[in-house]
Amino acid sequence: NAGVTQTPKFQVLKTGQSMTLQCAQDMNHEYMSWYRQDPGMGLRLIHYSVGAGITDQGEVPNGYNVSRSTTEDFPLRLLSAAPSQTSVYFCASRRGTAEEQYFGPGTRLTVT
Amino acid sequence: GQQLNQSPQSMFIQEGEDVSMNCTSSSIFNTWLWYKQDPGEGPVLLIALYKAGELTSNGRLTAQFGITRKDSFLNISASIPSDVGIYFCAGRPLYNNNDMRFGAGTRLTVKP
């Protein structure tokens, strides 16, 4: 098992550009989530999904879109990047209501 | 929002010393979790707590779910150099079991 994989590892965008952060898991987990991590603030939940076709907003959803067309993939879209979205982004997955949540290695995004 | 206040922000200790860190909130949480994050990686779950008053150990780590359901602590006994990292508390709010809030983290440095 590869676990949770994220691509790319690093990305630099200009303000106004769009991009998609990819996340995939091969553990057949129902739950997937996206977090952002900023210095001194811990992780904050952006969006989550409890299964294919079902998504919901977390604590900081503005500026981000998600979809879940398959169990394995949960991409995060930035439609018009802003400097405030400079952060490290983590994708995570877990099985059902189990608390063991597996995190990907992260994507470091810089918006100039 | 459902903010978690984690303290201390950082700790510098000698190998062999015990460590204690805690997390408090003004809101009630259903579940308290403690994670460790190494540089360049995603957080890894250390301990999960589900009931008020619960005390759980994982090797040299011990954590407790506060009676009021608004706080939790993590103790590390006899620290070793590989304990270095950032420790995060996290909790699932009473109103939404799919949401998760994180503290800002405690950065632990262990001097050999």
Main sheet of chain B? Answer: 6 strands, mixed
Number of strands of chain B: 11
Quaternary: heterodimer
Distance between the termini of chain A: 36 Å
Give the largest interface.
A-B, 26 and 23 residues
Count the helices of chain B. How many? 0
Q: Approximately what portion of the residues of chain B adopt beta-strand conformation?
A: over 45%
Q: What is the overall silhouette of chain B? A: globular
Low-confidence stretches of chain A: none
Describe the protein in words.
The complex is a heterodimer of chains A (112) and B (112). By secondary structure, chain A is mainly beta. Chain A is 0% helix and 52% strand. In chain A, strands 2, 4, 5, 6, 9, 10 and 11 form a 7-stranded mixed β-sheet that branches. A 4-stranded antiparallel β-sheet of chain A has the order 1-3-8-7, with no helix packed on it. Chain A starts with a strand and ends with a strand. With 112 residues, chain B is mainly β. Helix content of chain B is 0%, strand content 54%. Chain B contains no helices and 11 strands. In chain B, strands 2, 4, 5, 9, 10 and 11 form a 6-stranded mixed β-sheet that branches. Chain B has a 5-stranded antiparallel β-sheet with strand order 1-3-8-7-6, with no helix packed on it. In chain B, a hairpin with a 5-residue loop joins β7 (61-65) and β8 (71-76). Chain B is globular and about 45 Å long. Chain B starts with a strand and ends with a strand. In chain B, 37% of the residues are buried. The interface between A and B is medium-sized, with 26 and 23 residues.
